[in-house]
């Protein structure tokens, strides 16, 4: 018997318990977080965890404040890419050259651009994570959020949940999902933190928090 056959045989044997099928796995873990979705507490927690991950958070009170916030963040950039469905008004005050990813830009083209601006499907307060759903027009292809060196993400307070199970319940399982927790970083080499290895080295989040949130 080869090693592969032995492993498969053990897996098949592990499925049988006294000749019956595998018993039900208890799934009594918490499916909701401490803070209500979109609440002020959830937003505060997200701000805290994003900052811990070295992201910079910029709060605005409504959609009208988004263009100025994005323009300020991109003040030093000369070029930016945006998904085809990103609201045009969000980029209305940006002085950099804006390129829409339509038709899709090549990796070489993306690598020459300074930044990317996207929306987000949902944000997880407890983990400081936001999720990009490639099916959504304001988030676009995964490549545009990984190649440019600077990522600017717009998140609405209503899309902030407390826990991972709450986030997964809002996401479609049949499309590619990108989970982002701070700028890309690794400490594999002599435990020295190096940013920008697997994605953007700089992350700015524009958080839309109405006064009532």
From TrEMBL:
> InterPro entries attached here?
FTHF_cligase-like_sf, LUD_dom, NagB/RpiA_transferase-like
- The LUD domain, residue ranges: 111-208
* Record's protein name: L-lactate dehydrogenase complex protein LldG
Pfam families listed in its UniProt record: LUD_dom
**From what organism does this protein derive?**
Actinomycetospora succinea
Taxonomy of origin reads: Bacteria, Bacillati, Actinomycetota, Actinomycetes, Pseudonocardiales
């Amino acid at each position: 018997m080869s090693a592969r056959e032995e492993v498969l045989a053990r897996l098949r044997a592990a499925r049988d318990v006294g000749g019956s099928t595998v018993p039900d796995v208890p799934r009594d873990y918490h499916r909701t977080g401490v803070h209500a979705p979109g609440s002020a507490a959830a937003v505060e927690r997200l701000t805290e965890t994003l900052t811990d991950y070295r992201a910079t958070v910029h709060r605005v009170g409504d959609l009208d404040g988004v263009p100025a916030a994005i323009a300020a963040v991109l003040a030093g950039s000369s070029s930016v890419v945006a998904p085809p469905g990103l609201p045009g008004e969000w980029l209305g005050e940006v002085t950099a050259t804006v390129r829409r990813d339509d038709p899709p830009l090549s990796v070489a083209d993306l690598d020459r651009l300074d930044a990317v601006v996207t929306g987000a499907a949902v944000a997880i307060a407890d983990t400081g994570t936001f999720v990009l759903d490639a099916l959504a027009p304001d988030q676009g292809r995964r490549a545009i959020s990984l190649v440019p060196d600077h990522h600017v993400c717009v998140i609405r307070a209503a899309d902030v949940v407390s826990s991972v199970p709450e986030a997964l319940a809002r996401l479609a399982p049949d499309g590619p999902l990108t989970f982002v927790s701070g700028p890309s970083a690794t400490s594999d080499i002599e435990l020295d933190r190096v940013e920008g290895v697997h994605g953007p080295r700089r992350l700015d989040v524009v958080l839309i928090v109405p006064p009532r949130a």
